[in-house]
Amino acid sequence: MKVLSLCDYTGVWGGQYEDEYEVIYVDLQHGQDIRLFRHTNDVHGIICQPPCDHFAVSGARWWEKKGDNALREGLALVDACLRIVLAHRPQWWVLENPVGRLRHFIGPSCHTFNPSDYGDPYTKRTCLWGEFTMPQKNPVEPTEGSKMHLIAPGPDRKNLRSATPLGFAQAFRMANP
Fold it and tell me: How far apart (Å, rounded) are the C-alpha atoms in residues 16 and 135?
C-alpha cells in the first residue's frame, strides 16, 4: 500500500507513514512535477501541500504585483493535486494551505487549525480540505506566537515556513492510519 505525499519538500508529514506504507514523495524542488504524475496502484492515502506563495494571506500585499500568471501557476499545482486524488480514489486524502484566497477557487475549507492545537507552541492558521478524520487536539499555549513571521529572509525561508508542524503530522497519522 502507498501514501502519496505531494509538494512535501521536508517530508515531515509523509514521513509519519513510512513505518507502514511506501511513501511516494513528489515535489518540484526535488525535480518531480506533480502535474506530470502518472497513475499508480494501491494508493491508500494522499497528502497534498501545494505551495502557498500565491494564496496565503500573509503574502497578500504582493498578489497584485505578481499578477495572474503567478496565480495560474499556483492553481495548476492545486488542480494537479486534486486530479491525482480523483484518479486514485484513496481511502483518505487531505489538501493543506494557510488561510488565504485558495477558498475562492476550491470552496471553503472543511477544517482550520493552529499548530498550538496539536502541541507545537506557535500559531499559523491553516486550512484543510478533503476526506479524512480530523485529529484529536492536544492544545498548548502558543508561547512562540506567530514565529513564521520571524524567520529571517534567505534561501531556506520558504521551506522553513512551509514545513508541517510535527505535532499535527503525528496527530493526523494517528487519526488517519
Answer: 14
- Summarised one tens digit per residue, pLDDT across range 56-83 is 766 656 667 778 888 899 999 999 999 9
Cα distance between residue 151 and residue 160, in whole Å: 8
Q: What is the rounded (10 degree) CA torsion for 176, 46, 106, 31?
A: 140
Which contiguous run of DSSP H or E holds residue 113? strand 111-113
pTM of the model: 0.89
At 141, which amino acid appears? E
- Given the candidates 3.30.700.30, 3.40.50.150, 3.40.50.10490, 3.30.210.10, the CATH classification of the domain at 2-172 is 3.40.50.150
Residue in the structure block whose three cell numbers are 497528502: 47
Name the phi and psi angles at 114, rounded to 5: -115, 145
Boundaries of every domain in the chain:
2-172
Give the DSSP letter of residue 8. Answer: -
For 6, the grid coordinates are 505531494
